[in-house]
């Protein structure tokens, strides 16, 4: 049980930092770089702001234990789509391997968090 909890929280903390804190920090402290990743891919400026808001809401939903399971599922799905489409965008537009691998690495961490989340919730429901 403790191993499951540790794996879940390490993976989820990485997601919180990568998909929540970093984009929000850019928006608040370096707004000139908000669209640095989306502009070269041909997306409009407003897309970057929407993406940041959705990422932050997604990691909040995943990380708070009181959020209903259905909302968590939607958050995991939304972040999954985001990362898959980021990979596809980089593969078609700039074709830089490092840019293509990064969303897949974060997706692997997201999958790890997703797989260990029910183990934590199920264990809590059985013991608590």
UniProtKB/TrEMBL annotation:
Keyword set includes RNA-binding: no
Topology in membrane: Multi-pass membrane protein
Entry keyword Transmembrane helix: yes
Subcellular location per the Swiss-Prot or TrEMBL entry: Membrane
Superkingdom of origin organism: Bacteria
Transmembrane residue ranges: 46-67, 74-91, 97-116
Coiled-coil residue windows: none
Pfam families linked: DoxX_2
One GO location term (cellular component): membrane
Keywords: Membrane, Transmembrane, Transmembrane helix
Name the UniProt record assigns to this protein: DoxX family protein
């Amino acid at each position: 049980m403790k191993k499951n909890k540790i794996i879940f929280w390490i993976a989820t903390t990485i997601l919180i930092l990568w998909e929540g804190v970093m984009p929000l920090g850019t928006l608040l402290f370096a707004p000139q770089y908000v669209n640095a990743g989306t502009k070269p891919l041909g997306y409009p400026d407003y897309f970057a702001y929407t993406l940041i808001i959705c990422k932050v809401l997604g990691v909040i939903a995943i990380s708070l234990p009181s959020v209903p399971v259905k909302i968590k599922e939607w958050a995991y799905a939304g972040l999954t789509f985001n990362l898959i489409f980021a990979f596809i965008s980089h593969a078609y537009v700039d074709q830089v391997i490092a840019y293509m691998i990064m969303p897949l690495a974060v997706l692997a961490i997201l999958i790890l968090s997703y797989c260990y989340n029910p183990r934590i919730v199920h264990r809590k429901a059985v013991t608590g």
